[in-house]
Amino acid sequence: MRIFTKKLPHPDLPAEEKAQLLQNSEYQEMMVESTFMYLTLDLPTAPLYKDEKEQLIIPQVPLFSILAKFNGATEKEYKTYKENFLKRFQLTKLPPYLIFCIKRFTKNNFFVEKNPTIVNFPITNVDLREYLSEEVQAAHANTTYDLIANIVHDGKPSEGSYRIHVLHHGTGKWYELQDLQVTDILPQMITLSEAYIQIWKRREEDETNQQGA
């Protein structure tokens, strides 16, 4: 993965001084190549208001909206104690398996908060070709992934519980595991959960041909 980083001047500086600093090499964009164990997907801030019927709104976001973080063009600001940076990311390789970690939890000095936003995602046929840099797209014949496992967090950050959805390859059926309980689950029910960690498997050429047959 390529990570492009650009340092930002302090926001309280006068505009002229900011413009001068941006000319310095220290504030020019830099690129580094990095490996990754998983991809962190950032959720938008959940709304705090209710709808016209005074019911709490359950926010939703499409998977491809939060995957845009890795399209090589989307910029996000990152803050440290002393400095601010703009970063953008672009994938340069697609491994046989991908792990998505949906960032639901944020921690401050006092407590941990959870974002309840539901991520809308298809179970199969997720094509990630557009997140590859152009020069390496030709090296990837297969860029389509299918979900094979989905870890869900239910409840409050400190008191919640976990459920796991797992695909049985032999039968093509989905199962839900919680503690020692194993039950069948319909694929469409998986997308209604507060997904936290997902494992996706890249289709191989023979699998792609079977899907198209």
TrEMBL record:
UniProt keyword Hydrolase present: yes
| Record GO biological process | protein deubiquitination
Q: What class of enzyme is it?
A: hydrolase
Q: USP domain: from which residue to which, for each copy?
A: 1-203
Alphabetical UniProt keywords: Hydrolase
Reaction catalyzed: Thiol-dependent hydrolysis of ester, thioester, amide, peptide and isopeptide bonds formed by the C-terminal Gly of ubiquitin (a 76-residue protein attached to proteins as an intracellular targeting signal)
Query: What is the protein name for this chain?
Result: ubiquitinyl hydrolase 1
Naturally occurring in which organism (per UniProt): Trogon melanurus
Lineage runs: Eukaryota, Metazoa, Chordata, Craniata, Vertebrata
